[in-house]
Amino acid sequence: MKPEVVINNTELNVKERKSPKLRHWKAFYKKFKRNKLALVGGYIVLFYILLAIFAPLISPQDPYEIDLVNKLQPPSAEHLMGTDDKGRDILSRLLYGTRLSLTVGFVSVFFGAFIGILLGLAAGYYGKWIDTVIMRIVDVLLAFPGILLALAIISALGPSLINVMVAVGVFSIPMFARIVRGSTLSVRKLEYIDAIRALGATDFTIICKHIFPNILSPVIVQATLRLATAILSAAGLSFLGLGAQPPSPEWGAMLSSGRDYLFSAPHIALFPGIAISTLVLGFNIFGDGLRDALDPRMKK
Amino acid sequence: MFVFIIRRVLQTIPVLLGVSLVVFLIMQMVPGDPATLLAGEGATKETIESLRHELGLDRPILYQYVDYVLHAVQGDFGESLRSSRPVLDEIMVRLPITLELALASIFITVVLGMIAGIISATKQYSAADISIMIVALLGISLPSFWLGLMLIYFFSVNLHLFPVSGWGTFSHMILPAITLGAGGAAIVARMTRSSMLEVVRQDYIRTARAKGLKEYIIIYKHGLKNALIPVITVVGLQFGALLGGTVLTESVFAINGLGRLIVDAIRTRDLPMVQGGVLIASVIFVFMNLAVDVLYRYFNKRIDLN
């Protein structure tokens, strides 16, 4: 009888150990599902991701194919969104452009988040002079207004989409570093961290296994909201001619070429703008929903 | 209050030094040797070496940075590679235009944002509230450069109400100010709404109602003053976004401000101009933040002096 009881207890313990995490994610899912607006945001993002994946299959025409005979055509049955100044099909270019915008957004936010998380964890966990030095660097990076820091970086590296990703990524670092530092500080003070340290765990183990998983919620929320900013900033830089170069079907660059034809063919500027706005809107309301469900304290 | 201001001014010095260091280091990342670039094609090795010595490029990087800061403090940001005129002179011609644009936009941001936020909060869950919040959500997501183009298309090209581009008269100012201020107005509207909703649930507002005070006195005298505190911070942060946003707006409306000067300088690889422009815009932003902190302290006396 005795071993059976032990087995039962072990099973119970395993369930108990698993349950808080499971409960947390279940509660999150329940809360998130109730927020209809956030679901709409999620569907918008998913829609664009699917468009990016299946762009070669669903694009009616080659996005790079020049057809000067049919240039500046308004929307029609043959070209649903019309053609641009070189006769290229705008719909096909928008579909391929989804890949570029999402790639720029994800890569730059991942880059910014990775460095920001490392800096934030180091500052929050080690404190003292490490915290002071890192946070002063963060303060300096935050002292650059808007996209000016990104502009300065591009001026040094030269205009290209890869450099835009680097510039927008650097522009995101201070936000992540601040949030991670704050969360790390609050987790570090918890008693169980002291207990784990007393058991002989190394700093690396404590940070990776016990602190990082507990600060993930605000990082996910921030990353989703930063995606919106990153896509907007990258489109803005391409609009200025400092990002994607012709004939790339990047949305900001497409908009830029459309401004010269605002009088004769306003549709060239109209559709890329709608695409950027809806994708950014999707990330914004999805991020808001994630924030409310994952970390309601951040709402303030 | 005086001690607070002095302390905050002193705190800005290391930030300003840090900003100058970042700008200086970014410019060091530029590929190629500046002396070779300046000397031009076909220059002899001796000419390049003497130019390098003249520019101080043969000295350790720390010396070069200290030299750069000492010159910058005196307003010497070097000469533009394109026009050969002092960088500061060129910036000072363009800066007032950008500041005018930024101030007009901040006016739109504050007035439009706060009015929309107050209406939303006082009529929570009404059709007006929902409409304002939807427009605000859209406002945050619209790219300013696209909004600018659409405003030009509807109000300038179709309705002929405003000029398509340029700067100088009041009518030139309206579309760019709306373009630049709309995103900020959306953020301020959302912030004012949530801040007001929090304030109107406080006991002292209930007391004011119980005393029989008129609703508008409760909202404007008791509610708004307290709801303003977090809004000021948001407006301050928005000024930074606006200053950066002028780059795009000036490009859309062909306004010869500082933002357009920086973009043109990047295109022509006029690095001293980029360096000077970014540094001056950042210094303005740092001082703007200082002003916001002082205002914040004025409105919220409880703020910790540290």
Report on this model:
The complex is a heterodimer of chains A (300) and B (306). Chain A is mostly helical and 300 residues long. Chain A contains 12 helices and no strands. In chain A, α2 packs across α12 and α11 runs antiparallel to α12. The longest helix of chain A has 37 residues. The N terminus of chain A is likely disordered. With 306 residues, chain B is mainly α. In chain B, α5 packs antiparallel against α6, α7 packs across α8 and α9 packs across α10.
Outline the secondary-structure elements:
The complex is a heterodimer of chains A (300) and B (306).
Chain A: H1 2-34, H2 36-53, H3 55-58, H4 90-126, H5 128-142, H6 148-157, H7 161-188, H8 191-198, H9 203-211, H10 216-239, H11 251-258, H12 267-294
Chain B: H1 2-28, H2 34-39, H3 45-55, H4 61-73, H5 87-122, H6 127-141, H7 144-158, H8 170-200, H9 203-210, H10 215-252, H11 258-267, H12 271-299
Which terms would index this structure?
heterodimer, A: about 300 residues, mainly alpha, 12 helices, disordered N terminus, B: about 300 residues, flat
In short:
With 300 residues, chain A is mostly helical. Chain A has helices at residues 2-34, 36-53, 55-58, 90-126, 128-142, 148-157, 161-188, 191-198, 203-211, 216-239, 251-258, 267-294. Chain B: This is Nickel import system permease protein NikB.
**Residues in helices of chain A, as a percent range:** over 70%
Q: Compute the CA-based radius of gyration of chain B.
A: 24 Å
Q: What is the number of beta strands of chain B?
A: 0
| Alpha-carbon distance between the two ends of chain B | 12 Å
H/E element string of chain B? HHHHHHHHHHHH
Percent range for helical residues of chain B?
Answer: over 70%
Mean pLDDT over all positions of chain B: 87
Report, as a whole number of angstroms, the end-to-end distance of chain A.
55 Å
Rg from Cα of chain A: 24 Å
Instruction: Give the low-confidence spans of chain A.
Output: 1-7
The major sheet of chain B is characterized as: none
Instruction: Describe the main β-sheet of chain A briefly.
Output: none
Low-confidence stretches of chain B: none
